[in-house]
Design a protein that fits this description.
15 helices, 2 strands, MPAB/Lcp_cat_dom, oxidoreductase activity, ER-bound oxygenase mpaB/mpaB'/Rubber oxygenase catalytic domain-containing protein
């Protein structure tokens, strides 16, 4: 059995271990909130309003386990996620219709919003990706969809498919009052109790939240109208994202890992041990392993705006 769900040689590792994923994860939540029905599911059946940071950390844990967790660990997490989702339903106040949290079209939307956000943010942050790697990443992520109850054929398998899907769903997306409130939560989230020691550093979060908002598609920012639009904002957002990524890359791993849940750090430690036993050389964390032995920056320029909704 392979030591991790995704191989260290995969594009999934190249993107998911990049520290721009903090912005990517928040962007994904902001984009997901534009689906009115999906937003109602979050609003009514999660603790998002009281603990938006907790939801982000749970998403980070899911990404971590389905990237470098063991296949058994990922299967167990997937089963827990599916079991919880099966038990939850909610009512759309606009129609009075009852929906399941694990409704097929909602799961597809959440998956695509996440994958396109991770890809778009990493690209703009400076992660070098060839067109072939972009397609490969989307295809690799179709396996992740199976953990929430979808099949690989239910979701896009390449960039062209992803663009078609995003174009098809866009007419149904809009910024509801709940979605705008969710964005405000994400721009200035509540610090969870187990990270209370970070409360004095809370102002440092705002650049992450603001960049997540600024990297949304222009139509999404217009729909939200939560932060002002400024001339040259797109270029400024990309430049700022690259600066933030550079700054995050300077944080030593032992300090960087303090913001993650204990289970996420434990999963990483166990993955490190499995990789050592499988013959990988690891120094200074997974990113060093990846950069030194597996991923060399390609000489071709990355594609333009790979998965813009």
């Amino acid at each position: 059995m392979q030591p991790t769900v995704a191989a260290p040689e995969s594009v999934t590792w190249k993107i998911h271990l990049d520290r721009s994923m903090w912005v990517a994860g928040v962007r994904a939540l902001m984009l997901q909130a534009l689906h009115p029905v999906a937003m109602q599911g979050v609003w009514q059946r999660s603790d998002f309003r009281s603990d938006p940071t907790g939801r982000l950390l749970r998403t980070a844990h899911f990404v971590a386990v389905t990237t470098y967790g063991s296949p058994v660990e990922a299967d167990e997490l997937g089963e827990r996620v599916r079991r919880v989702h099966r038990a939850l339903s909610f009512t759309d106040p606009a129609t009075g219709r009852r929906h399941r949290v694990d409704q097929h079209d909602l799961l597809v939307w959440v998956h695509c919003a996440e994958v396109s956000s991770y890809l778009e943010t990493a690209h703009r942050a400076g992660v070098a990706l060839t067109g072939r790697e972009v397609d490969r990443y989307i295809d690799e992520q179709s396996h992740t969809a199976t953990y929430v109850g979808l099949s690989r054929e239910d979701v896009p398998r390449g960039l062209a498919d992803m663009r078609r899907y995003l174009a098809s769903v866009r007419p149904s997306l809009r910024a509801t009052p709940e979605a705008r409130q969710a964005v405000r939560f994400l721009l200035w989230p509540k610090v969870p109790e187990h990270l209370s020691w970070l409360a004095p550093l809370k102002p440092l979060w705002f650049p992450v939240g603001a960049l997540s908002y600024a990297t949304l598609p222009a139509w999404a920012r217009r729909a939200y109208a939560v932060l002002p639009e400024v001339p040259g904002g797109e270029a400024a957002a990309t430049a700022s994202l690259r600066v933030l990524r550079t700054a995050l890359n300077q944080v030593p791993e032992r300090y960087y890992n303090l913001v993650f849940d204990e289970a996420t750090v434990r999963s990483a430690d166990e993955a490190r041990q499995r990789l050592l036993e499988a013959g990988y050389e690891i120094e200074n964390g997974f990113r060093a392993l990846r950069a030194r032995t597996l991923f060399r920056a390609p000489s071709v320029p990355p594609p333009r705006a790979p998965a813009e909704a």
